[in-house]
Every structure is written in structure tokens, then in C-alpha cells.
Design a protein that fits this description.
This protein is of the alpha+beta class and about 80 residues long. It has two helices and two strands; from the N terminus they run αββα. It has a domain of about 35 residues.
């Protein structure tokens, strides 16, 4: 357990061990879930990726396109190998 002191302005400084445990760096954000009986749950906010980073994520990178028959044959060959083991 880590004990922190609240300043007259209502501010709290998180110790290095807390920041390291949460994986928080300067500029990052944290959230506190307010729970019953004056309790809370603190956790780091994971930064979201911009939508542009997702574009092209599933772009076809194969040298050529495969037919459904070729894909099915590859699947069957894989199952056949599993049955041999």
C-alpha cells in the first residue's frame, strides 16, 4: 500500500513507484473510478490510436491471389498433418 498526502489545494503527487506500477509517463492520463464508501480504483488511460493508423491494416500483401479451391486444399492439408501427429 502507498500512502499519499493531499495538499491544501486538494492536489496529490504520485510517487515514482506508483507511476512506474501504472506505466504512466509525463503527459499521460489516469482515471479514478469512484466506488462506494469513499473508495476508488485508479488506473492508467491507454492512449487511443488515430483512425488513420488502421487504414490499410488488412491490405493484401501476397504475391498473388489464391482461389477458394487452393485455400480449401491448404486447409485440408493442414488438418491431415494434425491427424498424423
Amino acid at each position: 500500500m502507498v500512502r499519499l498526502k493531499v495538499t491544501a489545494k486538494g492536489q496529490v503527487t504520485l510517487r515514482r513507484e506508483v507511476l512506474d506500477h501504472l506505466g504512466v509517463r509525463p503527459g499521460d492520463e489516469i482515471e479514478i473510478d469512484l466506488l462506494a464508501k469513499g473508495n476508488g480504483n485508479i488506473h492508467a488511460v491507454k492512449p487511443r490510436q488515430p483512425i488513420k493508423k488502421l487504414f490499410g491494416m488488412f491490405a493484401h500483401k501476397a504475391v498473388r491471389a489464391y482461389s477458394i479451391e487452393e485455400i480449401n486444399e491448404a486447409i485440408e492439408a493442414g488438418y491431415a498433418r494434425e491427424a498424423d501427429h
